[in-house]
Amino acid sequence: MKKVMILILLLVLSFSVLSCGKKENVAEGVPTIRYNDVPLEVYTINVYKTNGDIAIGGNETAADHVKQNASRVPFTEISDGKIELVNGSGTDVSYNILFSGLFDENGELLGYTENALSTLPSGRYIICAQVSERKAEFSSVYVYMAGIDKK
Which SS3 state, helix, strand or coil, does residue 53 take? Predict the structure, then answer.
């Protein structure tokens, strides 16, 4: 009887360890801007798309897009913590996320680097990243804008 109880307990513990995980509302594999390992809400713009023959977009910089869309960017209240850009992955797609700049809430470029994101002083900022997506039949470039309200 003791052996059966130990076996049941081990199975329950194994199941609970394997079933634990982070639940996210972000599509799996998509690049993200994260605060303490939780994806921030982003405003996304597809700025370039090509299938090899036809290309659409690509004439404006990331700073231009932030300036034009600063009022549409959702802001998340944060405190001290780790802010990072996390690359995505997939079986039929490859991603590359690159830091494009840190802006004030009005879309003006500030002089901070990606390494300074986790040590910003209090204020409202827009983190901008450029994401390239490559699939077999096409490639796209997106601008991600995440607003943070650091207290």
Answer: coil
3-state secondary structure of 63: helix
Binned average pLDDT, 10 residues per bin, the chain of 151 residues = 53 44 53 96 92 77 93 95 93 93 96 94 96 91 96 90
> Between vectors from CA 54 to CA 51 and to CA 60, what angle results, nearest 5°?
100
Q: Which residues pair with 40 in a beta bridge?
A: none
Contacting residues for 58 by C-beta, under 8 A, at least 6 apart:
47, 48, 141
Residue-level pLDDT at 17: 40
Written as one string, the DSSP assignment of 101-149 is: EEEETTS-B-S--GGGGGGPPSEEEEEEEEEEEEESS-EEEEEEEEEEE
d(CA 104, CA 25): 27
**How many other CB atoms are found less than 10 A from the CB of residue 8?**
10
